[in-house]
């Protein structure tokens, strides 16, 4: 096989696992019989930290969103489509790996129309629209979670969401191994709203920290998002505030508990570190896939679910108060979280697609 192209397009949820998969393929090219590996992503993502650290060449494209100007869209789209196909032909691409999202469509169509191998990765419990369309053409599909209402004629496996090598823990410590009631008075809580932050999560936690009993029992570290850092810093001095971090492993190792959205990447990383979770799904995610992801983790005993409509801090207060009174609950959730993990997902997915026994 001459070359493999990974279509890791629009958002961080598609990009990070795509780069993780590229790491495994590049590291094991000979074993997989691959000469070249490429990543394919939107030009707007040139500053994405994962793509800046990509282990292979990134091929940039500017395919327009399908929600653009209805009169100009067909012409712009066809132009970018043909442009991408010419590039793929020059690169002698033999196989396409689609990570989902509209920006992967040019690569997926190329595989279908020109008879190339097509592999798909689906990160969420509810598959995205583009992947749903292309499932019927795929040679193999890898899922992060058991898919809902999905019937496939091709070979498929549940292998987890590929994680970057820098994020995979050397040793996952369960709650009971990180928190000693005799030595530590407070629980470390990591609060995350995603790379752009989440105002609602920030506001709930800021309100929560005004309760004296919470300050006594919990220590908070908040990844506010760059755009929201100043706003949060004016509201509270009771937490360690970080606008953005490219070293999540450090924060996961510090934490005893995570409060976060429920994108597949966050769930996969937290599970790899055996972290109990309180999840607040983003309610406007396509097909409400974040709620489905959160309910999967909740059903498996790894998380508590807090819905967006819970506007104030009262429900989160009750959840944390219960954890403080019964730390064994956190240990049980920690064990269940680790059971949901797939730390070798990147290599396992590469093996599955390219049939290597390494």
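Sequence proposed for the structure above (358 residues):
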């Amino acid at each position: 096989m001459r070359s493999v192209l990974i279509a890791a397009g629009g958002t961080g949820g598609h990009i990070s696992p795509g780069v993780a998969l590229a790491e495994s393929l590049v590291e094991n090219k000979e074993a997989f019989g691959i000469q070249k590996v490429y990543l394919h992503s939107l030009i707007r993502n040139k500053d994405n930290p994962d793509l800046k650290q990509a282990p292979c060449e990134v091929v940039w494209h500017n395919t327009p969103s399908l929600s653009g100007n209805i009169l100009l869209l067909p012409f712009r789209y066809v132009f970018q489509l043909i442009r991408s196909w010419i590039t793929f032909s020059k690169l002698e691409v033999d196989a396409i790996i689609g990570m989902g999202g509209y920006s992967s469509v040019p690569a997926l169509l190329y595989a279908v129309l020109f008879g190339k191998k097509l592999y798909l990765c689906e990160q969420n419990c509810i598959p995205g629209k583009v992947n749903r369309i292309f499932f019927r053409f795929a040679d193999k599909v890898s899922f992060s979670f058991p898919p809902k209402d999905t019937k496939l004629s091709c070979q498929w496996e549940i292998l987890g969401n590929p994680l970057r090598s820098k994020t995979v823990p050397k040793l996952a410590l369960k709650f009971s191994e990180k928190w000693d009631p005799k030595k530590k008075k407070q629980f470390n809580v990591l609060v995350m709203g995603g790379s752009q932050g989440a105002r609602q999560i920030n506001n709930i936690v800021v309100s929560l920290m005004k309760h004296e009993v919470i300050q006594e029992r919990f220590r908070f570290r908040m990844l506010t998002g760059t755009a929201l850092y100043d706003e949060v810093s004016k509201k509270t001095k009771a937490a360690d505030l970080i606008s953005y971090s490219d070293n999540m492993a450090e924060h996961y190792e510090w934490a005893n508990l995570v409060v976060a959205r429920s994108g597949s990447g966050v769930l996969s990383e937290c599970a790899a570190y055996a972290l109990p979770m309180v999840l607040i799904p983003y309610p406007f995610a396509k097909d409400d896939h974040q709620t489905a992801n959160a309910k999967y983790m909740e059903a498996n005993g790894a998380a508590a679910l807090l819905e967006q409509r819970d506007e104030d801090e009262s429900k989160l207060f009750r959840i944390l108060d219960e954890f403080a009174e019964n730390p064994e609950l956190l240990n049980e959730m920690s064990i269940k979280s680790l059971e949901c993990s797939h730390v070798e997902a990147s290599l396992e997915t590469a093996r599955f697609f390219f049939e290597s026994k390494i």
